[in-house]
Amino acid sequence: MTAEPMKPATLVSTILLLVLNGCAGHQQSAVDAAGPQAGRIETLFWFFLAILGAVFIIVMAAAAWTLTKRHRGIEQEPLERTHLPPPQTETRLTRVVTIATIATVVILFVLLVSSIVTGKGMAEFANSKNPMVIEVTGWQWWWQVRYQNSDPQQVLDTANEIHIPVGRPVMIRGTSQDVIHSFWVPNLHGKRDLIPSRITTEWIEADHPGVFRGQCAEFCGLQHAHMSVWVVAEPGDKFQAWFNSQLQPAPAPTDPVLQRGQQVFLNYACVYCHTIRGTTAAGQNGPDLTHFGTRQGLAANTLPNSMGNLGGWIVNPQSVKPGNHMATIAVNPDDLQPLLQYLQSLK
After folding, report:
1. Average of pLDDT values for 149-159?
2. What is the pTM of this model?
């Protein structure tokens, strides 16, 4: 079956999301480090680029010199008629090849040592005391995020958006629910594969507040390109306020329209896949929607989180993200608007 191409409206919304995120200071760059781990990777990148760039320039210059050098003429080198280089040429070539071989070995050794030093420095975080532990699970095609805690009351589930406090080491415990994914937030760390039935770990830490874009870096199916995640780094007090608010169950609606919207959600098939804490909805196959209204994007940040985009996503998710696993629900037109308002009210 051939997948439908992305419709113009969806493409425009996606471009708008990227533009707005760029204007808001959102970043995705491995050479704009925002943490010590990414900083080590960036330093190693520039070091490799300088060394290998110099090697490239030297090789190209030598090739250009050889191609443009005037030929000496066979009459000046009688031995060339027998295909034997003269002794002075043989000596010169031997010297050049020897020097080039030694230089190559030295360069490779320097690159190897610098890589080992960088890897050792990145492993130092494993000894961090009192780290924050976040479990990230890759699904086709969204990210489940769980903040682990020894106190069950402090365990938090959310999706497609990770908040971390500035200056605190964070352990990312990654796994996958279906196929191999790869968690990559280039401003904070390198790539880490998420493998079904296995746990992989990496450490991130933000030096300063910011919003950093991450994505799946391992082809995982049709909508691999539409599987992104936001990492929001904020001061400790602001993070704690966000975390405490996220732990709360969804507020009970008091407005009649919102009350109707809640009933629409609970009466349709939404409850089989999604959870809204504080209600009877306890599905485990889709993102937790308890505080859905606070998130920046829809469908793993394929679209901005707006009322219009949400309506299109609910009514026909396959037109937005072909091949995704969200069921198409035939919502009564009279029920759609209250449902949208209810979901957007989940702050």
Report:
1. 90
2. 0.80
